[in-house]
Amino acid sequence: MSGYSNPRDLLLQQLAELLFVERMLFNEVLPAVHDGSHDPELQEALTHHRAETRTHASRVEDAMRAVGAEPAAARSATLVTMKEEHESEASSVKHPTLLDVFHCGGVARTEHFELALYEAAIGLARELGNGDCVKLLEQNRSEDADALKKIEKLAGRLRGDLPK
Questions:
Q1: What is the CATH number of the domain that holds 105?
Q2: Which end of the chain is less crowded, N or C, counting CB atoms within 10 A of the terminal residue's CB?
C-alpha cells in the first residue's frame, strides 16, 4: 500500500503486517526455534504455539474480510530483522540450556512485538466501529499474552538449570 488517506487504510496495512508476521512465525520462525531447542517442555510449548499461530493467521484473514478487504500480507521488516539477528546470535551460544534460555528471550521479544501490533490494530478497528474485527484480533492478542506468560515462566525455570 503506497499511502494512507484514512484510518481504514492504516488498519488494512496493520492487518497485512500482522498476517505476514503470523505466517512467517508459523512457516519459518517457530519450526526453526523448535528444532534448535533442547528442552522437551520448551519444544512442547513451541509446538502448541505453532498450532495457535496457524489459527491466528486465519483470524487475521477473517479480520481483513470483516473490514471488506481480501487478505493480503505485507512484509514486516521488523520481524525479518528480529529473525536474522536471532539466528546470527544463536550460533554463538554453545551451552544447550543457555541456548534454550536465549530462545525463550527471542520468543518473548516476538510476543511483545505481536502484542504491540495487535493493540494498534484493535484500537483502529474499535474506532472504526468494526466489532467483528476487534473480536477476532482480541482473541489472538489474548492467546499471545498467555503464550508470553508461559514462555517467561519456562525461561525462569531454565535459568535456574544453568550451571553456576
A1: 1.20.1260.10
A2: C
Indicate the SS3 state at residue 4.
Answer: coil
Q: Spell out the residues 6+ positions from residue 101 whose beta carbon is closer than 8 angstroms to its own.
A: 155, 158, 159, 162
Tell me the average pLDDT across 99-104. Answer: 98
Computed from CA positions of residues 37, 110, 84, 47, in that sequence, does the dihedral angle turn out positive or negative?
A: positive
For the residues 56-85, what does the mean pLDDT come to?
98
Q: Quick check: is 2 in a domain?
A: no
Single pTM value for the model: 0.95
**DSSP SS3 for 162:** coil
pLDDT of residue 2: 59
Residue from 99, 69, 70, 81 nearest 21 by CA: 81
C-alpha cell recorded at residue 122: 484493535
